[in-house]
Design brief:
The chain is of the alpha/beta class. The protein has 2 domains: 157 residues, Rossmann fold, CATH 3.40.50; 160 residues, Rossmann fold (3-Layer(aba) Sandwich). The chain is 29% helix and 19% strand. It is built from 10 helices and 14 strands. The strands form 4 sheets. It has a 6-stranded parallel beta sheet with strand order 3-2-1-12-13-14. The two termini are 36 Å apart. This is DUF3326 domain-containing protein. Pfam families: DUF3326.
Length: 351
Amino acid sequence: MSQRPFTVVMMVPTGIGASIGGYAGDALPVARAIAQISDRLITHPNVLNGAQLYWSLPNLYYVEGYGLDRFAANQWGLRPVHQNRVGLIFDQGIEADLQLRHRQAAEAVKTTLGVNIGDYVVTDSPLNVQLRTANSGASWGTIGQPDSLLRAAETLIEKGNVSAIAVIARFPDDPESEALANYRQGKGVDALAGTEAIISHLIVREFQIPCAHAPALSPLPPDPNLSPRAAAEELGYTFLPCVLVGLSRAPQFVKSNLLSPSDITAKDVDAVVIPANAAGGSAIINFSQFSSSIIAVEDNQTTMEVAPESLGIKSIRVNSYLEALGVLVAQRGGINPDALRVSVSSLCRLN
């Protein structure tokens, strides 16, 4: 009998200034490496999105954050697809020239990469995105017209027959802000990320359909001191290509009472890889209730500062993602990682 697929979840929560995964696609090399030693790697847009840069692999599953939370709670399963028909929602607040740039980006992805791009709609009101920062330094925000966003999504689903949705919202330009300057220099928090998550969460929660967001912003002047981690966002007028590629094969969400044998559930997850101090989300708490091992990476620091142990969650602590890869290789081979250490604990007798 063949072994069941070795399934890994990699999570880097958005908007919390992660040392790796807090910038434009800088966690993508980690995901690519983990995908090489996994049968299935489930991760989310914050890990895989790199503006105009992306990397598609057949065993990579692009799962929006709210959907990943429901998956971890075993309320939804994931159903792999060959392709999705991706529709686009444009914020009415986007200027005509900027919207044209994004439409042309979608046309380029359609003709150059062969992604199945469907129709687009424009919201009936400007979405009025506002950015906020929490006391912890994490980014969040608000949408002034969420109902307009939901009406646009409903139109795409009912009239456009789409199976995934990309949202392009106009985000406020603030080229002189200290937060933006810090981000471009490779320090600080992505000020857009928290609000982007809210936009996609809203659609996934309401329609149970894959969704991801690309912000529309005016291009910035060149910065000779730009950090390599932020460089992917400086390549052009749009962050849309990576979103369309990710959504093109994003698994569909299936409620637990409608699962088929080929669907993936939380009980199939062998390991979850997280930053060592970013265990505060509901997904980690839920994954820990199953047999999944939690691998906490010390190098990847965040502003969340919630360790698994503080929540009563047992974890395998490693210094780096390179060390995490070694743990995963051992686990896939059915080897206890502790057997590879110099000190091996003795057996204990239970009374």
